[in-house]
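Table S4 entry, EBP2 protein.
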Amino acid sequence: QDGLKQCLSEFKQQLAWVERLDVTSGQVVDPVSQSASNKDAVDPENDFQREMSFYRQAQAAVLEALPRLRKLQVPTRRPDDYFAEMAKSDQQMQKIRQKLKSKQEAMERSEKAKQLRAMRKYGKKVQTEILQRRQKEKKNMLNAVKKYQKGLSDKLDFLDEEQTSSQGNKKGSASQRIKKGPNAKRRYKNQKFGFGGKKKGSKWNTKESFNDVSSFRSKVAHNKGPGKAGKGGKKALSKRPGKRARQKMKSRAR
């Protein structure tokens, strides 16, 4: 102890407190128990109690030093326009941002993949339930048919249910078709080729068309119109010369 005091006296400097800023605090009062914390109250093996005692001691030292600094007119608060340069460069911070962004995107992708797997699992479950229900209905219908064939039952309710379900499906599909209507391609073909129906015998006469003689022309019917010449009213057609005559005409032209 004497040697330590001697060493302390050798390097000790008599400076003002504002240059040293050393604060010695005594026993710190615990605000919860309102009792002075001594060495016996703090268990050194308990990390939480030990750190809390350090925290309370540092807080008491700050509360003691701040009034002394205000008396000496030393500013203790940072001004609003204070600019502190970052310890890391912008390039390094940009790399950190990109890394954090890539991690976040990877987490989002994994979350989406989990959701897709859950949806597929749920869809598969629903599909299996539907298949099981259809198999059950089919089995019940086959059992009912066997009972009816053996004469154990005279009810045919399952056929009525099947017919009603099929009719309901047909009505639903027909209503959907009516509601939807034909597309543009179908409408163009209908306009060009007609709507189907009877083709054979479509030009047969009816009673009304047989009695209608408004389009009858006697001159045309008896070959007496303009442009008709020759015996018996036949057309004076220009007859093509034969092969020998054509060959003679070619030889003369040469």
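Residues 1-31+43-72 form one domain.
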